[in-house]
Amino acid sequence: MSTPGYNQTLLSMASDALDALAASNAGSSHATAAQQSHFLCSWMAQALKDRRYAKCIADDLTQWVRQGRSLGAGANLTSLLERIRSQYTALMQSPTALGSALASMLDAAREQDFIVYSDTPIKTKLKLDADGQASIIVCADEYQANIRDGELIKPISLYVRCDEQALAKLAFDHGLMLTLGDKKSSLIKHHKAYRLFPENELPSLALLTNH
């Protein structure tokens, strides 16, 4: 029997945690955000201690437990888990033709006045003079080699400068899961690097919309 991947493990954990919250006193309509956060923080800490889930989400659980303990209600753990459950459930339904979906997303970005380049090879660090205009850059070599017959066959990087929630909504609307942005690994100055994986099988937490 194969071990569930990151996405399925995270979705299972989020669903289990929210079900446990709903069945507890902290899940009642009279419970405060602080009570919910305390419950979920304790629940996650126990899940870690019991090794209830695959190791691939251990770092996430550790981080959220720390946030819950330091920020209390400000950690927004209930909202986080609800967004994970909702968005992962939707995006894991039929993760096919992601190459075509990416092309559609880039077209939609152009319609929203993004600068979009997918025809330039990127071999070294570059700077885009765009006066702060939102932009998405995809290496031409990756774009051509990693998509076949509309299907994404290898991971591809997107270098993006824009409001991150606008990007999250763009991706979600086109059935795409992107990794969290990383400035350090970006080859374009003032842009963050995001990764898209075949079948939306990310190795880490996806960029989530706030709703």
Give a description of the structure.
There is one protein chain. The mean pLDDT is 93. It contains seven helices and six strands; from the N terminus they run αααααββαβββαβ. Strand 3 (147-148) and strand 4 (151-152) form a beta hairpin. It is an alpha+beta fold. It has a four-stranded mixed sheet with strand order 1-2-5-6. The protein has a two-stranded antiparallel ribbon with strand order 3-4. The longest helix is centred in the N-terminal third of the chain and has 17 residues, at 6-22. The chain has helices at residues 6-22, 33-49, 58-71, 77-91, 98-111, 140-145, 164-173, and strands spanning 115-120, 135-139, 147-148, 151-152, 156-161, 192-196.
Rg, Å, rounded: 19 Å
| Secondary structural class | alpha+beta
**Tertiary shape:** elongated
Question: What is the H/E string?
Answer: HHHHHEEHEEEHE
- Strand content range: 5-15%
Number of strands: 6
Q: Estimate percent helicity.
A: 40-55%
The side-by-side strand order for the widest beta sheet comes to: 1-2-5-6
Oligomerization state: single chain
pLDDT averaged residue by residue: 93
Uncertain stretches of 5 or more adjacent residues:
none
What about the largest sheet?
A: 4 strands, mixed
Number of helical regions: 7
**N-to-C CA distance:** 35 Å
